[in-house]
Amino acid sequence: MDPQIAAALVPLLGWAVHGSVLAHRLASARRDPLTGLHTRAGWTARAEHCIRRHPAAAVLLVDLDHFKALNDTHGHAAGDAALIATADRLRAWCGRNGTAGRLGGDEFVAVVQDLAAADLGALTAALHQPLPYAGRSLPLAASVGTCRLAELPVPVLTDALAAADAAMYAVKGRSRRGSRLSR
């Protein structure tokens, strides 16, 4: 190869590698390292896109019940396994019709294109399946609050999250198990 061409290609190759590394870091920053779900920033961008395109979209907030007790009793590795299992179950439920994310701790979020077409009972049942861990069956439970965007005066994500949060806390206060639509 001509030395002048090689000299010109070396910086271009360096910039290409640098760009690839930056793109990977950005993608990694938008994914939770434990669960692989979107972080708040990554999920928010996808959720806003979904609610703009799908007027029947709904936002769900999911909070694991008794998570601290599970962590304190069985250890942090069991807690991590519970978070991973919850993320997997929520991701599977969303499928191609929504996007799941992890807000932090034991709080998860999802947006689906149409809650009427999704089986909320199936999600609740999946989130309450025991977790096989270290030869044991650990109980899992979650409270789910939902908000249909169509029920809001102005369908914006922040209001939907607030309504789903209120619905989720109503579930926690009522039974600490199940799901509830905002009203």
Automatic annotation (TrEMBL):
Residues 55-183 form the GGDEF domain. It comes from the Bacteria. This is Diguanylate cyclase (GGDEF) domain-containing protein. It comes from Streptomyces prasinopilosus.
